[in-house]
Amino acid sequence: MAARECSIANALGVIGERWSLLALREVMLGRRRFAQIAANTGASRDILTARLRKLVEHGVLAKEQYELHPPRYEYVLTDAGRALQPILHQLMEWGDKYVTEGPAPTVWEHSCGTELHTETVCRHCGEPFGTGEMTLVRLGGVPR
Amino acid sequence: MAARECSIANALGVIGERWSLLALREVMLGRRRFAQIAANTGASRDILTARLRKLVEHGVLAKEQYELHPPRYEYVLTDAGRALQPILHQLMEWGDKYVTEGPAPTVWEHSCGTELHTETVCRHCGEPFGTGEMTLVRLGGVPR
């Protein structure tokens, strides 16, 4: 039996490695250079090089030259990379609540005046995810 | 230099492996038994056994006995596991948009009457994530 056709699996094929997501976190925090990303994640240079190359190949990060002589590059988010920001934030909040012991290590404030906590809602009706019924129309490419 | 203290990293320590997330997907779809999870993910028995054990140890899944003789178990979501459902849904939508070629393999309909697409909003003001300013109050346990 073949595994399901699945966009979660496909997404994990691109970003589903620990160091990939932690590298993305650093770029989102404005730490765009290899040495900064390596230091703040604790990834080895070899692994980080491979992960960053993959993220660039799949269009999640782009490499931009910021110095000509010697040539030096930094990593910036593409649209696909920016679209991961809310997902990483939610992963952080999940970790705060269910894994990390003690207070949340990282806290953001939103300009509405509160500590930023997020929720997932239906884009159409605005109700929180899990409110109402969800019906499978198609699963793994197979109509239900 | 030590890696940042970070709930994203902590979360990935529990669920940041491909087969863990795909196993969770199956349980969320109601495929709670080992053989179903193995078949639908394509994970090897050894790896899946280790991943499921870890998810149970960390309280993301619970093991429930559904047959006494012979003893048989199935996996159910805990509160921590249920809290991952919107995150996995968003990961799926990200994969649909940026990775999967062709139409979305899996489609859900919401009881509000539309194909379910989600967004992340601020729980306080309801504005979409990325609207307004986000200010770091504390980063990796260090006040800013």
Description:
The structure is a homodimer of 144-residue chains. In chain A, 41% of the residues lie in helices and 21% in strands. Chain A is built from 6 helices and 6 strands. In chain A, strands 1-2 form a two-stranded antiparallel sheet. In chain A, a hairpin with a 2-residue loop joins strand 5 (134-139) and strand 6 (142-143). In chain A, helix 2 packs across helix 3 (34-41). The radius of gyration of chain A is 18 Å and the shape is globular. The relative contact order of chain A is 0.10. The mean pLDDT of chain A is 95. At the A-B interface, helix 1, helix 2, helix 3, helix 6 and strand 3 of A face helix 1, helix 2, helix 3, helix 6 and strand 3 of B. Strand 3 of chain A pairs antiparallel with strand 5 of chain B.
Which features does this protein show?
homodimer; 144 residues; Arc Repressor Mutant, subunit A; two-stranded antiparallel sheet; 6 helices; globular
Write the layout of secondary structure elements.
Two copies of one chain form a homodimer.
Chain A: H1 7-15, H2 18-28, H3 34-41, H4 45-57, E1 61-67, E2 72-77, H5 79-82, H6 85-98, E3 107-110, E4 118-122, E5 134-139, E6 142-143
Antiparallel strand pairs in A: 1-2, 5-6
